[in-house]
Every structure is written in structure tokens, then in C-alpha cells.
Write a structure and sequence with these properties.
18% strand, five-stranded mixed beta sheet, alpha+beta
Length: 566
């Protein structure tokens, strides 16, 4: 995952979390405020209902008492009751009660005798009679009483008050009972506070269906067993909450977009210098050591300066390493060359000394031995010349000059040359990436390993060499060369890649040493293993972009040594 993508994800998540948290807190605070406002409205509506109940109850009681005390029609009705009521008078009293009910603004009004006989009713007489007879036996109460009473086909909550009237010295007592339904009063108070009010158990109590609302049932002491139902619509609350949610989502989206844009800007500012550093560091690895450009933030500039200092130290170290390796190589090769040359010098010395002795005593065998001795000397001199030539070839192996190389194509060409000569060399290949390597030296590696395999398998009836080219997951390729020979002996394994180490009669022991040097200079490695069915298996691993190591000819001096390429 790139730095830019990580910053974008981090900034986006941070903005989303922060905006979401602020949005949730804002929504919660707003909802709590709305809840408090709802509660305040319900409390205010409840107080308004109590105040209206007190006013209505006092008003009804005063109206009825004033009617009983001062109304002439009531006196006349009492007198008529003392002397007996005619049908015509009863009809007149019934109309009088209806008129009086309208004049007092009541919803119910009934006129009773002490025995419960109904003299007149301004509403449904049957419904009034059922309630009035029960109230006649109760003592007179101050104010009005809140009851749920039948009113026609439906039950309604009403404030009910009564008063009594009798003549002085008379035996008859009449009662006037009036009621005012609470629907209008509750509707009036509810409109004032935008709350729907009703009394539980009455026809006005209709729970909301379909519409989102909140209903609170409040027990009020003045209502007795009755309960006030307060219903408040939550539609506006839900609409406001939905509006807040939309604004929170829009704000979150805008914040995330701004955060991502900011992250892209910051990531580009950070990533470009880092990418430039990575490219230039890769060039250092591939053999172009030069200081990187110092750009970017203060931290990146400090890192680039440290990298340049390390690069300068690395170049100096490589120069010293090259000089040290050159001296060590001279010593090792000089020791090995001296060892190799000492062997032919012994027969040369013996031949010359023998010739001198024969010549000194004028031995007649001098002429016969002269031919044999000179042949021996010439043969050993030729051997010394070959050793020196091969040493010079090994010592002057040029540094690799990397180019784009298709290793599969190179392997095909090399195997085809051997196959054309009659050798049984097979190739098994897989698609491989193009590598950066010296083509001629890669060909030399393949040629030496294939020829070694054929030489090792020459003792068998059908010598075979199998070449396999495969890609590596770690950005590289592997070359596997196996033969069906006897394999490498155990005593040769420790010195397998050393110069002049060989068990072949005509070999010089420089082939594998040259192969190892080429492979190492390309940043790869070569290993040996015994084949499953016998024989030798050499495995060469080359990276796509090799590491160019400093290479110096053994006869170069430190002063004439070119700058290492990295």
C-alpha cells in the first residue's frame, strides 16, 4: 500500500470519525433540547387544563346557584309543585329548562323533585334520569364535580353541579342539575399549547393511528379516578431530526472529500521526494552512484543528506575494498601460479643438469640424451606458457557491461550450438523477465557449465546435459544445469570453485572460478548439489537488476584504477 493511499485512508477515516462524533453529539443535544421542550409543553398543557377546570367548575356552580336562588321561574315551579302540576304546566317547565340550558351555556340541564321525578330536561331525559337519581341522594357539594356520564350514545367527561330550591315553610324541594362537557374546554386548551387533550375512557379519547406521536397519561388528583391523556405529534420532531441527519451526512461527506484532497496534496508532497530518492537509490544499486537531489520537507532533506554522506562513504569504501581485494588476489594468484610453475621447473632443471654433466665429461651418450632432454624442456616450457596465458585471461576478465538480455533466447542459442555438434543437450524453459546483464558473460557461464557437464558425463554410454530456465518470485531467474555423470567427489567439494582446482587430466581448474566470478559480479549466486539419480546439478540465480561490484584487473595500480561504477 502506497504512502498516498495510506494517508488518504487515514485522513478520510479521521474526518469521518470526527464529523460523525460531532454529528452524533449535536443530534443528541438537539434531541434532548426537543425532549425538554416537549416536556415543558406537556406540563404547561396540564397546568392549563387544571386552571381551566377550576374556572369552569366555579362558573357552573355559581350559575346554577344563582338560578336556584334568584330565578322566578324556579319559584313558580316550586309553587306549582305544591298545588299539583297540570300536563300543560309540565310541558311549559320542560321548555323552560331547555331555554335555561341554552342561556347558561350548558350541555345538560335537568330539573328534579326530591323523590327523583324528572320535571324537565334540556337533553336526553332517559340518560339524565339515570345519573340525576343517583345524585339526588348526595349532599350538596360546593363547586362542580368531574364525571364521565352518558350523553346520548357516547360517554363524555363533564363538569356536573347541582343546586336545590324550596319555598319558605313549603314541603317540596326541587333540584337543578347542570353539566358542561369538557371536549370544548380541552380542545381550546390543547390548541393553545399544540397538544391534543382528552380524558381516558371517553369518546374524545382516540389513540393516534398511522401518525407518529407521543402520548402521556397523567393522573390528576382533581380528576379522581379519571386520567388526562396528552398526545403530542412527533412529526415535526422527526422532520427536524431528519433534516439534522441530512446536514450531518452532507457535512461528513464534505469533510471527507476535503480530508482526502488534503491527504492527496500532502501525500504528493511527501511521496515525490521519497520516490525520487528510491529511484536514485536504485541507480546506485545498479551501478550509478551519484548524490541525490535534496528536496522536500526538513526530515526528507535530513534523510537525503544522510543518504548522500553514506553514499560517499560507500564509494570510498568500495575503492578501498577494490584495492584490498586486488592485493589479496595478487598474493593468492601469485602463490598458485608459483605452485603450478614449480612442477614443470623440476624436470627442466633435471634435464639441463644432466646435459651439463654429460657435456663436462664428454660422454658419448650426450648426443642421444640431448634430443630427449630438449623435448622435455620444450614441453614443460609450453606448459608454463599455457599456465601464464590462462592466468592472464582469468586476471584480465573484463567488468560486466549490463544490457537487456532475454535469458531464454540466450539459452536457446547456446543449446542449439551444442546440439548441432551432436551433443545431447536439452532445454526446458518457462517465460522469464528480461534481465540486466552482460550478454557475452552470460553466454560464457552457460558454455562453461554445459561443457563441464558433457566432460563429466563423457564416461557414460549416453552423456546428457539438461538445462532448465525458470523465473523466481523474488524478481529474478534461475538456471539449472544437470548432467548424468558421476558427480563431484567429496574431497573436491570444499575447493570446487577455487582457481586451479580440478580432477580432470587436461583441465586447468579456472572454468568454475570464472563462472563464479561472473555470477557474483552480476549480483547472483551459484550453488552445487548432487542430482536425485546421481550426476552434478549447478544452480545459478541471477536478479533482474544485478548488483555491479567493483572489479579491477590484477595488474592495475591504485592510481590507474577507474572509479567504481557502484
Amino acid at each position: 500500500m502506497t504512502l498516498a493511499l495510506r494517508l488518504q485512508i487515514a485522513f478520510g477515516l479521521l474526518a469521518l470519525i470526527a464529523t460523525g462524533a460531532v454529528g452524533i453529539l449535536t443530534r443528541t443535544a438537539w434531541q434532548n433540547a426537543e425532549e425538554e421542550r416537549f416536556t415543558e409543553r406537556l406540563d404547561a398543557a396540564e397546568k392549563g387544563v387544571l386552571k381551566a377546570l377550576d374556572q369552569e367548575a366555579s362558573q357552573i356552580a355559581k350559575q346554577l346557584q344563582s338560578t336556584c336562588d334568584h330565578d322566578g321561574d324556579i319559584d313558580q315551579t316550586t309553587m306549582d309543585l305544591e298545588h299539583g302540576l297540570t300536563p300543560e304546566r309540565r310541558l311549559s317547565i320542560s321548555q323552560l329548562v331547555k331555554d335555561q340550558m341554552q342561556a347558561l351555556g350548558l350541555d345538560e340541564l335537568s330539573l328534579f323533585t326530591g323523590t327523583g321525578e324528572i320535571l324537565g330536561a334540556g337533553h336526553d331525559p332517559a340518560a339524565a334520569g339515570k345519573v340525576d337519581r343517583a345524585l339526588v341522594a348526595q349532599p350538596a357539594a360546593k363547586g362542580a364535580t368531574l364525571l364521565v356520564r352518558p350523553a346520548g350514545a357516547r360517554a363524555k367527561a363533564a363538569l356536573v353541579a347541582r343546586c336545590s330550591h324550596s319555598l319558605v315553610g313549603g314541603s317540596q324541594v326541587i333540584y337543578l342539575m347542570g353539566a358542561r362537557h369538557l371536549d370544548a374546554m380541552l380542545s381550546r386548551v390543547g390548541d393553545a399549547y399544540d397538544v391534543k387533550l382528552s380524558i381516558a375512557g371517553t369518546s374524545a379519547y382516540e389513540p393516534a393511528v398511522g401518525e407518529k406521536s407521543r402520548t402521556v397519561t397523567a393522573p390528576i388528583a382533581r380528576l379522581g379516578a379519571l386520567r388526562l391523556v396528552e398526545t403530542l405529534s412527533t412529526r415535526k420532531l422527526e422532520q427536524n431530526l431528519a433534516s439534522v441527519d441530512r446536514w450531518i451526512i452532507l457535512a461528513s461527506a464534505a469533510t471527507v472529500v476535503v480530508a482526502i484532497l488534503l491527504a492527496i496534496w500532502m501525500a504528493n508532497g511527501l511521496a515525490r521526494p521519497l520516490e525520487a530518492l528510491a529511484r536514485q537509490a536504485a541507480e546506485v544499486v545498479t551501478g550509478e552512484p551519484r548524490p541525490v537531489e535534496v528536496k522536500g520537507t526538513r526530515e526528507i532533506i535530513a534523510f537525503a543528506n544522510a543518504f548522500n554522506k553514506a553514499l560517499d562513504d560507500l564509494v570510498k569504501l568500495r575503492k578501498r575494498l577494490a584495492t584490498t581485494e586486488r592485493i589479496a588476489a595478487r598474493r593468492e594468484i601469485a602463490r598458485r601460479v608459483a605452485h603450478e610453475i614449480k612442477n614443470p621447473l623440476a624436470p627442466i632443471r633435471a634435464a639441463v643438469e644432466t646435459l651439463r654433466r654429460l657435456r663436462a665429461r664428454s660422454d658419448p651418450a650426450f648426443d642421444d640424451y640431448f634430443d630427449e632432454a630438449t623435448k622435455t624442456v620444450l614441453s614443460e616450457v609450453h606448459r608454463i606458457t599455457k599456465i601464464v596465458s590462462e592466468f592472464t585471461e582469468f586476471a584480465r576478465l573484463p567488468a560486466p557491461h549490463p544490457t537487456s538480455v532475454d535469458i531464454v533466447e540466450v539459452a536457446r542459442s547456446t543449446v542449439a550450438l551444442y546440439a548441432a555438434g551432436g551433443a545431447r543437450v536439452s532445454l526446458e524453459e518457462s517465460p522469464c523477465p528480461i534481465i540486466q546483464a552482460d550478454r557475452d558473460q552470460v553466454v560464457q557461464v552457460l558454455t562453461n557449465l554445459i561443457q563441464n557437464g558433457l566432460d563429466a558425463a563423457s564416461a557414460t554410454k549416453a552423456p546428457e546435459v539438461d538445462v532448465r530456465i525458470e523465473p523466481l518470485a523474488e524478481a529474478g531467474i534461475t538456471i539449472r544445469i544437470a548432467d548424468n555423470g558421476p558427480g563431484v567427489s567429496d574431497e573436491m567439494l570444499p575447493k570446487l570453485f577455487l582457481p586451479y582446482a580440478t580432477n580432470k587430466p587436461s583441465g586447468t581448474g579456472l572454468g568454475l572460478a570464472i563462472v563464479q566470478r561472473i555470477v557474483h559480479e552480476h549480483g547472483g549466486e551459484i550453488t552445487y548439489e548432487k542430482g536425485p539419480a546421481g550426476g552434478a546439478v549447478f544452480r545459478v540465480v541471477l536478479p533482474v537488476v544485478g548488483l555491479a561490484l567493483p572489479v579491477a584487473s590484477l595488474d592495475d595500480t591504485p592510481e590507474s584504477q577507474p572509479e567504481p561504477r557502484g
